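Deliverable D2.4 — example input (structure tokens):
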């Protein structure tokens, strides 16, 4: 799911849905940014290996490790949090459509 102004205006119908959608946008931005950083680090390590990295103790393995750490340690948890926030926003939006509980 991608961020969009149309979804933002849709979730504005409920305060809780709007709050969770705002959190979704923030976490999704973090996940995108750190995902690109992790990918760039892994690709830098790959290019370093192609250029003759220098054996098993080369510095390119640091780039691989840093790229995987950023991707798995930061980007994936942020993406998971964004998914949970979007799910909560949808739930609160649907709850606002259902109205108050009946006795």
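Example output (designed residues):
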């Amino acid at each position: 799911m991608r961020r969009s102004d149309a979804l933002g205006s849709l979730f504005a119908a409920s305060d809780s849905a709007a709050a969770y959608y705002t959190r979704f946008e923030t976490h999704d931005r973090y996940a995108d940014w750190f995902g690109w950083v992790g990918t760039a680090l892994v690709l830098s390590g790959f290019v370093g290996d192609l250029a003759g990295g220098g054996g098993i103790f080369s510095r390119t393995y640091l780039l691989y490790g840093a790229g995987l750490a950023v991707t798995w340690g930061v980007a994936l948890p942020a993406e998971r949090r964004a998914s949970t926030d979007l799910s909560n926003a949808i739930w609160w939006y649907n709850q606002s459509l259902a109205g108050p509980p009946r006795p």
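The chain has a mean pLDDT of 88.
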